[in-house]
Amino acid sequence: MSGRCLAPGGEDGIIEEVSGKWYRSVLFRFYLVGGASAFAYVALFVLLRFVMPSQVANVLALLISAIANTAVNRRFTFGIRGTDEIMRHYLQGLAVFALGLALTGGALWLLHIWTADPSRVQEVAVLVAANLVATVVRFLGLRRVFAPKASDEPRPGHVVGPG
Q: Could you read off the pLDDT of 96-105 as tens digits, one per residue?
C-alpha cells in the first residue's frame, strides 16, 4: 500500500488523491466513534441481560449500536452529508454488522460451551475481546462502504467533505 488514497476533497466535494494525513484523521475519528459505540454496546448488553438470554441481548445491543455507529461514522468519520445513497450505506453497514454478530455470537456460544453458567463479567470480557476483532473488520468494511469511487462526481444531495 502506497500510503495514498482517494478521499473527499475540499468545499466543492471533488474527489482527490491525498496523503496518509487524511487517512490518519479518518482512523482517529473512527476510533472515537468506535469507543463510544463499544461503551453503548456493553451498557446495552448489561442492561438487556437482566431480562433476556445472552444471545438475544447481544443481538439487540449490537443492532442498536451498529445503526447508531453507521449514522455517526457516515457523517462524522467519513464526512458524508445528505441522503444520497443512504439506503446503500445502511444496508452495507448491516452486512458489516452481520460479521460482527457472527464474531460476538460465536464467542458467547463458545463461552457457554466451556463454562456452564458464566458470570456477567466473563460474558462482557469475551464480548469486549470479540468486539476488538469485530472493530477491525468493521473499519475495513465501512471504509469500503463509504469510500468514494474515482469515477464519482458530486451529485445534488451528496456532499462529501469534513465535518
A: 788 889 999 9
